[in-house]
Design brief:
single chain; 31% helix; globular; binds flavin-adenine dinucleotide
Length: 278
């Protein structure tokens, strides 16, 4: 598959240019440009990105100023081109991007606040999702996205018997609740464990293997989620269809981390695509 002509957006959340996260961002930018990609960067701390939702996220007259409802107001503003300038600029970058790479240190088992705020303000209703267009039918179903993050703890800490618990459970809200929800095809996460506590050679090795991975990133098989067609609609409470559940009744594992049907979680289903798990 041709890589030339593709566009990537790197959304970076780190305060320091001397950080390992910044080094990962530099490698990404350089490696993708070398392959002919256009690379856009949203360096959130550098931009002083405002992560706080407010009425200022719309311009013009609110529909219901005395009972301002953020979702409804931003949906109307998006339709009418009245979202705040900084949101519009980020949405334009998302529109242009074939691939979005989120580069961040894991904070409190999730995204740093500044990046969560980017998600909340930029991936707004209508633009990034609606009840009619969500999950496998989401607006970004032709785009790919990937989480690249660093941790404080070692990998063993986030295993099913580790102190922090299974990394697949930690990944589920970010990969399913944000990326898959908006339709992105989710590529395997790039997790750099315990970067502050390993030798310099090991860190250089991580940067090198990430650079190598980026060479063929577009050809990778995404992680599997259940398609929205497997579920009932609103009147059926969005439940997994009985016939889908029945076809899986002999499986030892539940279908996903979230839709586990009371069975053991499918091992490493948020870490690896089905191809690389076989
Ligand atoms: C609020 C908060 C919440 C947190 N929550 C969690 C949590 O839930 N789970 C968890 O596991 N951790 C957690 N942490 C820890 C956090 O995830 C780590 O501190 C972070 O991931 C480390 O990444 P960094 O980029 O900041 O590393 P840095 O400390 O900036 O860098 C690590 C090392 O890499 C070196 N380095 C930089 N550039 C290069 C290069 N080019 N080549 C080689 N070496 C280089 C640096 O000099 C440094 O020695 C939390 C931290 C905070 C502050």
């Amino acid at each position: 598959m041709l890589l030339e002509g593709k566009t990537a957006l790197i959304v970076l959340a780190h305060q320091e240019r001397t950080s390992f996260n910044y080094a990962m961002k530099e490698v990404t930018e350089k490696a993708l440009k070398k392959k002919g990609w256009t690379v856009l960067v949203s360096d959130l701390y550098e931009m002083k990105f405002n992560p706080v939702l407010s009425r200022n996220d719309i311009t013009g007259k609110a529909k219901e100023p005395s009972r301002f409802k953020y979702g409804a107001e931003t949906l109307a503003a998006w339709k009418e081109g009245r979202l705040a300038k900084d949101i519009k600029e980020e949405q334009k970058k998302v529109d242009r991007a074939d691939l979005i790479i989120f580069q961040f240190p894991l904070y409190w088992f999730g995204l740093p606040a500044i990046m969560k705020g980017w998600v909340e303000r930029v991936l707004s209703m209508g633009f990034a999702y609606s009840f009619e267009t969500m999950y496998s039918e989401g607006p970004f179903k032709n785009k790919k996205a990937l989480l690249s993050f660093t941790t404080g703890g070692p990998g063993s800490m986030t295993t099913p018997s580790g102190l922090n618990g299974d990394i697949n459970v930690i990944l589920w809200p970010m990969q399913n609740g944000i990326l898959n929800f908006c339709g992105f095809k989710v590529l395997e996460p790039q997790i750099s464990y315990a970067v502050a506590h390993i030798p310099d050679e090991a860190r250089v090795g991580i940067l090198q293997s990430w650079e190598k991975r980026l060479e063929k990133i577009w050809d990778e098989t995404p992680i599997t989620f259940l398609p929205i067609q497997d579920f009932e609609g609103m009147t059926g409470g969005f439940l997994l269809k009985k016939e889908v559940e029945e076809t899986r009744s002999d499986n030892r594992y539940g279908p996903t981390v979230g839709q586990h049907l009371g069975k053991p979680l499918p091992p490493d289903s948020q870490l690896k695509s089905e191809n690389s798990r076989l």
